[in-house]
Specification:
Elements: E1 10-13, H1 19-32, H2 39-51, E2 57-63, E3 69-80, E4 85-95, H3 104-118, E5 124-125, H4 133-141
Parallel strand pairs: 4-5
Antiparallel strand pairs: 1-2, 2-3, 3-4
Helix pairs in contact: 1-2
Amino acid sequence: MPGAGSARHSSELVGACDLADLLPLMRAYCDFYNESPSDEALLELSRALIADPLREGMQLIARDSLVAAVGFATVFWSWDTTEASRIGIMNDLFVVPEARGLGLADRLIEACTQRCAEREASRLEWETGPENLRARSVYDRVGAVREPWLTFVKRVGTDGGRAE
């Protein structure tokens, strides 16, 4: 049942002291999507968010009752010209397999939504792969609405924008 046991979990803004616990979560998330940025690149991303959360964005880390890191979410700030407002883009949401089904994803989404409200963002948006049915059921459950927009990507750089 969603939410069952979730009172034993917490989510907090990531600080420098959380990076050692956050890195394995980010690595597992990247592995899920068959991507392989370097550990240093992942840590650089997190450090940039920690250094300037009002302009860059923020990460939340979820911990269980034993204070083990079991999930994270990343929100980047952007703007929507058609609404003339700030928006939050939840680029990452990940919960370790053994902690799924406890409502942690719901709680992380709610925490991200709250942070967006505090920044006066008009919405929180995100995307997932069409084959990620488990995530899609979470998103439907929390009241998210699928948009009809298509995502296009053009890689930048001679190596396709990927770090070696």
